[in-house]
């Protein structure tokens, strides 16, 4: 079984915060290079054995409060600044033995994790706790009128998160992107954020892979006492125990996603799944996908969506590598709602393939399209790369004048996206009272090189598809 220890970057690189592989540091501990606030002036000469003073200090700051900022030893064996997001008492520990859920302030939220006290450099504790966080937590606890008594120091986060999501309509099937959040009042939204801040499921098994998750996903409460979930890679049903999955695999007769195979080229296949006809599959896919998508990209009602599932096929079946979803009807000309390449398959060009595929569908519909906003950090990078490659390839080959409208007609890329892409590359100039595209071949080559390779090509001749039409 392959094991994915670190969230890798997507095909197109990303966030300069790519983590190194997990390691146990082998005594190769390097202390933070700089002392931070709270460090005594003589820290460097402090002998390895604890002094009375440091013991006293430790006793006064432990357990650390939510909101505390401190340096934490990460998987690269170096110390990085973190903020304590949550804490919980250790199962077999003493009254002051806690684990801490931390956010590395330099990194994306997907790297948030539970850490042990020994990973924290207590000399670096900033003693001023983030007041706002404290207030928020306290006020939430006081206003929620919970029947279940919650231990002040052992908040059952996942369960509460599900309840809160449900109460404010953010549970699967009623989600929408941030745009939809505007309809929620600020307090509800804060509450939702507060209770989805800690990952609930740590790993999943899917086909041949065990995958570390990135974000919270609101699985039904009965699943939230499991750190690991087992997914059937074909119907995406999920289970709490390996034996349940083994029993399921004996009777599950799917060997590919439900729905129609609309593309096959070599070992790659694309299936179109109608969320209305395959509701359970659509919901399972959302639960799974949410583990790797931040709360910005969520779902509405699966009925209203088509899901395009990209698979690598072999003699055992068609194995999902990623997908994108698309609204059946979009007034904003969205041609893609959510996009995900599963971590084991990232950096292989599949993300680019999915984006290119979404535009091929738009071309067949005779419409221009654009991805739903907001895009995730990784999503935006993928799109910028795609737009740059497609547009500059045309400009390079084109002789004579070309307008943005013509570019849009040729590529199905929305005019606004063309304009912002060309502007960001400084290819639009203002001359004699009008905006013109300036395409010096050398400059184009330089930008194309920077945008990287295009990944796997979509072979349009292998796409057999007619645009969605409501039946009946
Ligand atoms: Zn199954």
UniProtKB/TrEMBL annotation:
Catalytic residues, chain numbering: 372
E.C. no: 2.3.1.48
Superkingdom field: Eukaryota
GO biological process, one term: response to UV-B
Residues of the signal peptide: none
Gene Ontology CC annotations of this record: chromatin; nucleus
Transmembrane regions: none
Segments forming domain MYST-type HAT: 196-467
Biased composition (Low complexity): 40-51
Region (Disordered): 1-60
GO function term, MF aspect, one: transcription coregulator activity
InterPro entries: Acyl_CoA_acyltransferase, Chromo-like_dom_sf, Chromo/chromo_shadow_dom, HAT_MYST-type, MYST_HAT, Tudor-knot, WH-like_DNA-bd_sf, Zf-MYST
Key words of the record: Acetylation, Activator, Acyltransferase, Chromatin regulator, Metal-binding, Nucleus, Transcription, Transcription regulation, Transferase, Zinc, Zinc-finger
Matching CDD domains: CBD_MOF_like, NAT_SF
Compartments, record wording: Nucleus
Reactions catalysed: L-lysyl-[protein] + acetyl-CoA = N(6)-acetyl-L-lysyl-[protein] + CoA + H(+)
SUPFAM superfamilies linked: Acyl-CoA N-acyltransferases (Nat) (SSF55729), Chromo domain-like (SSF54160)
Family per similarity comment: Belongs to the MYST (SAS/MOZ) family.
UniProt name for this protein: Histone acetyltransferase
């Amino acid at each position: 079984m392959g094991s994915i220890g670190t969230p890798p970057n997507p095909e197109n690189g990303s966030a300069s915060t790519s983590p190194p592989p997990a390691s146990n540091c082998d005594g190769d501990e390097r202390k933070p290079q700089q002392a931070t606030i709270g460090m005594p002036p003589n820290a460097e000469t402090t002998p390895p054995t604890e002094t009375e003073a440091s013991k006293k200090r430790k006793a006064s700051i432990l357990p650390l409060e939510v909101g505390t900022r401190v340096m934490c030893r990460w998987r690269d064996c170096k110390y990085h600044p973190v903020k304590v997001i949550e804490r919980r008492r250790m199962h077999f520990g003493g009254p002051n033995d806690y684990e801490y859920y931390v956010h590395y302030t330099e990194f994306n939220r997907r790297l948030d994790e539970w850490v042990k006290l020994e990973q924290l450099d207590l000399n670096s504790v900033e003693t001023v706790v983030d007041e706002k966080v404290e207030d928020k937590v306290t006020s939430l606890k006081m206003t929620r009128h919970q029947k279940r008594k919650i231990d002040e120091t052992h908040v059952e986060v996942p369960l509460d998160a599900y309840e809160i999501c449900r109460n404010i309509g953010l549970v699967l099937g009623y989600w929408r992107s941030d745009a939809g959040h505007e309809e929620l009042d600020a307090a509800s939204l804060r509450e939702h954020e507060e209770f989805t801040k800690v990952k609930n499921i740590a790993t999943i098994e899917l086909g041949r892979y065990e995958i570390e998750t990135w974000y919270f996903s609101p699985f039904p409460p009965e699943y939230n006492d499991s750190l690991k979930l087992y997914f059937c890679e074909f119907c995406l049903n999920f289970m709490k125990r390996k034996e349940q999955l083994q029993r399921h695999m004996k009777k599950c007769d799917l060997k590919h996603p439900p729905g129609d195979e609309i593309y096959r080229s070599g070992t790659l296949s694309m299936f179109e799944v109608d969320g209305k006809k395959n509701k359970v599959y659509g919901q399972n896919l959302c639960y799974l996908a949410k583990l790797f998508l931040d709360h910005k990209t969520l779902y509405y009602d699966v009925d209203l969506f088509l899901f395009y599932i990209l698979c690598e096929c072999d003699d055992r079946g068609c194995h999902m590598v990623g997908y994108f979803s698309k609204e059946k009807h979009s007034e904003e000309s969205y041609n893609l709602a959510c996009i995900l390449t599963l971590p084991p398959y990232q950096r292989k060009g599949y993300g680019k393939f999915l984006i290119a595929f979404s535009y091929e569908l738009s071309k067949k519909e005779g419409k221009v399209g654009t991805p739903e906003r907001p895009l995730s950090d990784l999503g935006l990078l993928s799109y910028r790369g795609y737009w740059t490659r497609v547009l500059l390839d045309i400009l390079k080959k084109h002789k004579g004048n070309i307008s943005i409208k013509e570019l849009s007609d040729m590529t199905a890329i929305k005019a606004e996206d063309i304009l912002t892409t060309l502007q960001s590359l400084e290819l639009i100039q203002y001359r004699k009272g009008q905006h013109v595209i300036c395409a010096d071949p050398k400059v184009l080559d330089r930008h194309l090189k920077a945008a990287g390779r295009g990944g796997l090509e979509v072979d349009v001749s292998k796409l057999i598809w007619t645009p969605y039409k409501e039946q009946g």
